[in-house]
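Why predict the complex rather than its parts? Because the way molecules touch one another can change local conformation, and only a joint prediction can capture that. The input here totals 534 residues.
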Amino acid sequence: MKKMIRPCGLHCIKVNRLGVRLGGQTVLEDVNLHIHCGSLHAIIGKNGAGKSTLIRAILDDIPHEGDIEFKNRENGKMQKLKIGYVPQSVNIEKHSPISVYDLIASYQSRFPVFLKKSKRMEKAIRQSLQAFEAEDLIDKQVCNLSGGQMQRALLAMAIMDEPNLLLLDEPVSGIDQSGMELFYRTMEYLKENFDLAIILISHDLNYVAHYADQVVLLDKTVLKQGSAKEVFASEEFQAVFGREELPDYVLRPAKETGRRAAPDFGGR
Amino acid sequence: MGLEYGFMRNALLAILLIAPLFGLMGTMIVSRKMAFFSDALGHSALTGIAVGVLFGVFDTNLSMVVFGILFALLLNYISTKNAASTDTVISVFSSCSVAIGLAILSKGGDFGKYSGLLVGDVLSITRAEIVYLLFVFLAALLFYLLCFNWLHAASIHRALARSRRIPVKVTENLFAVLIAVAVMLSIKWVGILIINALLILPAAASRNLSENMREYHFFAVLFSMFSGIMGLFVSYETNVATGPMIVVFASVLYFATYWYGRRYEG
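Output of the joint prediction:
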């Protein structure tokens, strides 16, 4: 598992002119993003704006144009980008005989999970779960987990490979208000204590305003990018969402709402 | 017990290979919701034989296996393309291939000599054919040891698996080919009508009890072997076809575990 390292702010991930065409239709075009380690980028947009497609393209799961660079800004060297992906849900039905160990070990190791538990793997998984205070979930059946527990198990798996970039679909079902609060605080904890950048597809503008360092408004392409306040105040945002959906405190100064200032990466 | 007869010893050997093989593969067939896939594959055995007869292939095992592999890859390809109505498309291809098979085999009115295939007859297996089974068994074991986690990961979330550089397509195709070969080489002994039950029932019964992958596979293999051995001996004593008897035992195990699982759940 990844050692706790403060983000250095020196790694950057660049998405250059990303485009996706599916069945003759342009789903995404000319998407450009620039992300530093230690920052949380929230992607917002209406249904069908191409948010999930963007994630799949970054994952290289679908054919796309453009490329993704991962650079160390100190020496300008290109590095191999490791992505930790946390899907919104997994395809596990009720009564499935799959424990959290089985779930994680299937992706992390080749030692067949049906044969016996690998001691080494078990230790690594337990350690990773520990970061999310979830080590007692290891032998629980995945289908019996709550939405929040499931999310933590998937997060634990995602950070085991020491990713440089964490891609997440915000959980929308099975998580209550306090669960969402916890989820976003976990995001905060991750970006502050691990050397990684986060791209999060978000459906809740209130949380976005509170926790995101950068907000990306997406509709086939990047309509507007900037701090939550900038994006929410923009005409593009109003054109997509309309004024009534604006969280009220967006219009108030940031300090009043207690929103943390975005980390300063120096020379951004 | 009948073990003084050579055919019973051969049958027992065959069961000792087929049962754990089917128990093991059934778990993933059930998990991946491929029950319909394997059923279609079983039915297509008829076509495999028909193709062999048509081309004058001496050993119909060969034409069955080749046809089975092609058919399995085709079905796999279709199911990745048409996500919405896979079952309908599989059904279309399956009935089409069965119809062609039946048409060819019934030409001249002597389908009767193939009707044994429907029920199967494990007592007629020869040593050479047991060796075939042994090879499939070893291949399946090797595949499970090397690729099981990949297959499992892909069934839980394909994109997540691919993001971990897991060769999802190759693994899934290999598994489909493996099912095809196992089904085709076992169908004469188990029977077209019931081969799918032998794949599905032990795994389904095991699911009623298991909480993790190790229990799931252990019980599936155990149930499969129990039904296989009991089915063989009881069928010998009662003079009924072996395949159906095995399935009767497997079904009883399924209902018993279902009841037990319900009762002690949570």
